[in-house]
Write a structure and sequence with these properties.
Elements (H helix, E strand, L loop, with lengths): L1 H22 L1 H37 L8 H75 L5 H190 L3 E6 L16 E3 L6 E6 L2 E6 L2 E3 L5 H14 L5 E8 L5 H5 L8 H15 L4 E13 L2 E4 L8 E2 L2 E2 L7 E2 L1 E8 L2 H14 L2 E2 L7 E2 L2 E12 L4 E11 L6 H4 L4 H24 L11 H5 L1 H4 L4 E8 L6 H15 L10 E3 L5 H4 L14 E6 L10 H13 L1
Parallel strand pairs: 1-5, 1-17, 6-16, 6-17
Antiparallel strand pairs: 2-3, 3-4, 7-8, 7-12, 7-15, 8-9, 10-11, 12-19, 13-14, 15-16, 16-18
């Protein structure tokens, strides 16, 4: 068995050496070198082809720049570039094959190393087995020399034979393992042979393709040479034809040149004439700018003089027009005064943030640049014009507004009854016009300041007493704003002296002597007035406010006594319930406000149409304004309008009502004056307070408004006076 194992080991070693000689790493390296040489040869051939192509391209570009075969040449160049790309792809494939051959070479080197290791291990195993075999032989020989110990030797041999059997088994298993390794190596070698064969086939295919490309390049090169030769022949033929045509044309040109020379000889006199004409025209053209400048200068002077004359004429006409306009306005005002018409002023408030943004907040009102009494309203796409006595734009100040009404205010000192009331929708600025703010007061406070100024200017000849009352009409109930109980309802009655005038019993009347007194009265009245917040106005007046100023005067030299009354009315704003969002008590207030304003409209309609009966008693408002609307008063209505697009309906109604009011004639106004003998100033003044009161304190002058005798102070008026003194 040991000999058999040795023989098998020798056979395996021979097989390994044979395989190494047949498919060793040297053959793969040789094959790789062959492929590399083939690749290098192909590269050189490709470079040579490229050089030939470049040479052909240069030859083609030089003589055939404008040749008719340029497109075909471009196609061949494109084909050549395609072949070059394919050659590049072949180069890439060859590089991949080189890499694959290198990998296979590395794998063969690894297999060789593994085979060397296996052979070394087999040699060691053989040497070990040979040593054991020699030991066994020596033992057998020694046993043969000792026959008397056969039994024991046999046993010993048997024991040694068991060990040998075990070693034999181990060597057999080791041999089987080595055989398996050799089988695996053979399988790997077969796979590598197959891969090598496939790479050889791929290389053969690549060589065939390269040969095909070379043949195609040669064919293309031959075609290009043929085409270039044909183009060269065609070029020569075209050159000969062009040369012959040029010779014919040159002959014709020479003939034409001879004819032109003869024509030039005949045209020289005409040319001299044309030159002379040209020089004269040139001189005229040179002198033309000067003539043109002179003409333009004179024309500009004439036009400027005409324009200046037109401007002077226009200025004169405009001056005359404005003068006539002022005279017309003055005559109109005088006519209005004589007729007793109600004068109507319009005031447009500016756009505010409460109006919002967008189309609804756009300005719908425009003004006439030449007439300050005309106002234009754009309503539903149509322009409606209104003519009033005066229109104040949004930028008009409180001072400008008061300058137009101060003549009416001063006539109160002369003994006339004057009424100024503000009308318009809620949020249009009525309260601002009448009352204003502390920094910018309205008509009320400015009127009283003007009265004080006029009184001081006439103090040398006249003695005046000014008293103030404040009331409101809230839900058709007349309330005293300066009384101790503002919620108490008052009634309007006729004076018992038979004068036919109206007065309000119980209405508190305060004597004022300075601006401080006025501020105290106004502050106390504002506290009691009804104002609430609605959707249309954050501080909406919910009542009609009346400030009644009575001026009594005495001329010390003649004994003439005058009594004038100034009614300053801030009407509550007309509103649509749907827009204002009024509910509950606000709704009831709005209904009463609209009812009283409707009654005012009925009174205006009756006065305008000269009806026999005027419904003054349909409302507390119209009943209280009866003296101002019945022809015994100078009356001015200040209509307040909003310029916002969303309020055009209310603005239209207000302006239409203003035009109707403007057409009402109340008749001439009478002056309240009579001769009387007043022993002292104290009879003019109403009873003062207790002896301890200071002289400048505002004191109530009586309980009745326009009553025949002031009487004694009531307890309520005294308490109000104490409040005013405390506030002072």
């Amino acid at each position: 068995q040991v000999e058999t194992l040795k023989a098998k080991l020798l056979e395996q070693a021979q097989e390994i050496s044979r395989l190494r000689s047949e498919l060793g790493g040297t053959d793969a390296e040789k094959h790789r070198d062959l492929l590399a040489a083939e690749n290098e040869r192909l590269r050189q051939e490709m470079k040579a082809c490229e050089g030939e192509l470049r040479e052909l391209r240069r030859q083609q570009q030089a003589p055939c720049r404008d040749c008719a075969h340029l497109q075909e040449n471009a196609g061949l160049q494109e084909r050549l570039s395609q072949l070059q790309r394919e050659a590049e792809e072949m180069r890439a494939k060859l590089a991949e094959l080189d890499l694959e051959v290198q990998q296979k070479t590395n794998r063969l080197a690894e297999v060789e190393l593994r085979l060397k290791d296996s052979l070394a291990e087999r040699a060691e195993e053989e040497e070990r087995l040979s040593r054991r075999l020699r030991d066994s032989q020596e033992t057998i020989a020694s046993l043969k020399s000792q026959p008397q110990q056969i039994k024991y030797i046999i046993k010993t041999v048997e024991v040694e034979s068991a060990k040998a059997k075990q070693a034999l088994c181990e060597s057999q298993s080791r041999n089987q393992y080595l055989q398996e390794q050799v089988g695996m190596q053979r399988q790997v070698l077969k796979e590598m042979e197959q891969q090598l064969q496939s790479s050889q086939k791929t290389a053969a295919q690549l060589r065939a393709q390269i040969m095909m490309y070379e043949a195609e390049l040669e064919r293309a090169h031959g075609q290009m040479l043929e085409e270039m030769q044909a183009m060269e022949e065609e070029k020569n033929r075209a050159i000969e034809e062009a040369f012959s045509r040029a010779q014919v044309e040159m002959k014709a040109v020479h003939e034409n040149l001879a004819g032109v020379r003869t024509n030039l000889l005949t045209l020289q006199p005409a040319l001299r004439t044309l030159t002379h004409d040209y020089n004269s025209l040139k001189r005229q053209v040179r002198d033309f700018p000067l003539l043109l400048q002179e003409t333009l200068r004179s024309a500009r002077a004439e036009i400027g003089q005409a324009i200046e004359e037109v401007h002077s004429t226009n200025r004169e006409l405009l001056r005359k027009y404005r003068r006539e306009l002022q005279l017309r306005k003055k005559c109109h005002n005088e006519l209005v005064r004589l007729k007793g018409n109600i004068r109507v002023f319009g005031r447009v408030r500016p756009i505010t943030k409460e109006d919002g943004e967008g189309p609804e907040a756009a300005n719908a009102l425009t003004f006439d640049a030449d007439d300050d009494a005309v106002l234009h309203l754009l309503h539903k796409g149509k322009q409606v014009s209104f003519e009033l006595d005066k229109v104040f734009p949004p930028q008009a100040s409180q001072e400008e507004v008061f300058q137009e009404v101060q003549a009416l205010v001063t006539s109160c000192i002369d003994g006339y009854n004057v009424c100024i009331f503000a009308y318009g929708q809620t949020g249009a600025g009525k309260t601002y016009t009448m009352e204003g703010t502390a920094a910018n007061p309205g008509i009320n406070q400015r009127a009283l300041q003007l009265l004080f100024s006029e009184v001081r200017s006439k103090a040398a000849d006249w003695d005046y007493a000014i008293s103030v009352s404040a009331a409101e009409i809230y839900n058709e109930a007349l309330r005293d704003l300066l009384g101790k109980e503002p919620q108490e309802k008052l009634e309007i009655k006729l004076c018992p002296d038979g004068s036919g005038q109206l007065y309000v019993p119980g209405l508190t009347e305060f004597r004022v002597q300075s601006v401080e007194d006025i501020n105290k009265v106004f502050e106390f009245g504002h506290v009691n007035r009804a104002t609430e917040c609605t959707n249309l106005n954050e501080h909406s007046s919910r009542s009609h406010a009346l400030l009644i100023v009575t001026v009594r005067g005495l001329d010390r030299s003649t004994g003439l006594r005058t009594t004038g009354k100034l009614n300053l009315v801030d009407l509550a704003g007309s509103e649509r319930v749907g827009r204002s969002g009024a509910e509950g008590s606000r709704l009831r207030e709005a209904q009463h406000i609209n009812k009283s304003l409707s009654a005012l409209g009925d009174v205006i309609y009756a006065l305008r149409s000269r009806q026999g009966h005027v419904p003054f008693r349909n409302s507390k408002l119209t009943y209280l304004l009866q003296d101002s609307l019945s022809g015994d008063s100078k009356t001015l209505m200040m209509v307040q309008v909003s310029p916002a697009e969303k309020n055009t309906s209310e603005t239209l109604c207000s302006l239409k009502f203003a035009e109707r009011v403007r057409s009402v004639e109340l008749g001439p106004v009478s002056r309240k004056a009579e001769l009387a003998s007043w022993p002292s100033q104290e009879q003019l003044e109403v009873t003062e307070g207790p002896p301890g009161d200071s002289p400048g304190t505002a004191a109530p002058s009586g309980r009745g408004h326009a009553s025949p005798s002031p009487g004694q102070l009531s307890g309520r008026a005294a308490s109000i006076r104490r409040k005013l003194q405390t506030s002072g």
